[in-house]
Specification:
By secondary structure, the protein is of the alpha/beta class. The chain has a single domain (2-85, 93-176), classed as Rossmann fold (3-Layer(aba) Sandwich), CATH 3.40.50. The chain is built from five helices and six strands; from the N terminus they run E-H-E-H-E-H-H-E-H-E-E. Strands 3-2-4-1-5-6 form a six-stranded mixed β-sheet. A hairpin with a 2-residue loop joins strand 5 (159-165) and strand 6 (168-176). The relative contact order is 0.23.
Length: 181
């Protein structure tokens, strides 16, 4: 089974942490959307995060999603939601395991996100395209590389592709760009 995760188009956050805030996407780059459409090809099913930015991205790509899954929402950053990026606390040096278990007040950790997302991914039975978030893509990567998934960049409109062989997952590509070649 092939699992492709497309991160939504750039979120219109006004320089603030979005996380679970339901902000729109900037789907105005029609050339980039055309490149994404050509790259994603055909999937047996399309599943979308319920977030507005994900649904707008799927619509802009002409995709019809089979379902939305609340498990695919971005990480909940609790009290940090909506803060300007420059107002976020400096956590100091943390290794990936420490960072994966750090939780913003009232929010969830990356480990919590993975515990929510990975069962939904493991339940998939056929080739699937998911339109979701950077956190969702990193949660998928964590099935292969553990907490090291926090080290991966996941740009807007990039693809992360994994394969499942039995119970084993492998990574085909991460942060596949949609830039002109």
């Amino acid at each position: 089974m092939r699992l492709s995760i497309l991160r939504h188009a750039p979120a219109l956050t006004e320089g603030r942490l979005a996380g679970r805030r339901d902000v729109p996407a900037d789907c105005s780059d029609h050339a980039a959307l055309a490149r994404v459409k050509a790259r994603i090809g055909v999937a047996d099913q399309v599943v979308c995060s319920p977030a507005l930015r994900c649904r707008q991205t799927a619509t802009a790509l002409g995709l019809t999603w089979d379902s939305t899954d609340p498990a695919l929402w971005e990480q909940d950053f609790g009290a940090w939601e909506g803060l300007p990026f420059d107002a976020l606390p400096d956590l100091g040096p943390l290794d990936t395991t420490q960072l994966a278990h750090h939780r913003a007040p009232g929010g969830e950790s990356f480990a919590d996100l993975c515990a929510r997302v990975t069962p939904a991914l493991r339940a998939l039975q056929r080739d699937t395209l998911i339109v979701a978030h950077a956190g969702t893509a990193r949660a998928a990567l964590s099935m292969v590389v553990g907490d090291g998934a926090l080290s991966f960049a996941v740009a807007p409109l990039s693809l992360t592709v994994l394969h499942r062989h039995g119970d084993q997952w492998s990574v085909e590509a991460t942060n596949l760009p949609i830039f002109e070649s």
